[in-house]
Amino acid sequence: MAIGPLRMFFVAGKKVRLVDFENLVRFDPSFDIGYALAHWVLDISEENRDKMVEFFKDFEREYEGKWSPSLQKDADEVLKRASRYLGAMMLHRLAGVKSTMRMEEYLAREIPLIEIAKRFVQGNYDSPSSAIKLASLI
C-alpha cells in the first residue's frame, strides 16, 4: 500500500488497484485496510470471487512482507481485525446506499450483502481474503 499525494493505490504483485483515501485515518491500520477493501467486496459475485481472493492474498503477502520477523504476529493480528472492519465498512456503506450513484445495483443485492457483511463482523477469519473465500454468497 502506498500513501501520498499521487500514491493512492494498492500494489499486490503486478496488480494495482486505485483507492480513495479521503476517509482513511491515523488509527488502527486494520480499519484502513477494511475500509479500502469494503468498496470492492460490495461487488462480490461467484464470477469474480476467485480473482478478488487472489488479489487480496497478494496484497496480504506484500503487506506482511513489510513487517520484520519479530513483528509478524502483529501483522497477522492487523489482517485478522481487518476482516471485521471489512464487514463493518460494508454495513456502513450499505446504510448510506441512497447517497451513492450505484444505489440501484446495491439495493438489488442489499439483503445478501448485509448477510455477508454481518458474517465478516461476527466471524473469526485470519484475513480479508479468507473471509471472502469462505463467504456464502446466498
Structural class: mainly alpha
- The gyration radius over C-alpha positions equals 15 Å
Q: Biggest sheet: strands, sense, closure?
A: 2 strands, antiparallel
Distance between the termini: 31 Å
Characterise the protein shown here:
This protein is mainly alpha-helical and 138 residues long. The chain has one domain. The chain is built from six helices and two strands; from the N terminus they run E-E-H-H-H-H-H-H. Strands 1-2 form a two-stranded antiparallel sheet. A hairpin with a 2-residue loop joins strand 1 (9-12) and strand 2. Helix 2 runs antiparallel to helix 6 (128-134). The longest helix has 24 residues, at 72-95. The chain starts with 8 loop residues before the first strand and ends with a helix.
Condensed summary:
The chain has 138 residues and is mostly helical.
Write the layout of secondary structure elements.
Elements: E1 9-12, E2 15-18, H1 29-41, H2 49-65, H3 72-95, H4 103-108, H5 110-122, H6 128-134
Helix pairs in contact: 1-3, 2-6, 3-5, 3-6
Q: Which key features would you list for this structure?
A:
6 helices; 138 residues; two-stranded antiparallel ribbon; disordered N terminus; single chain; mainly alpha; globular
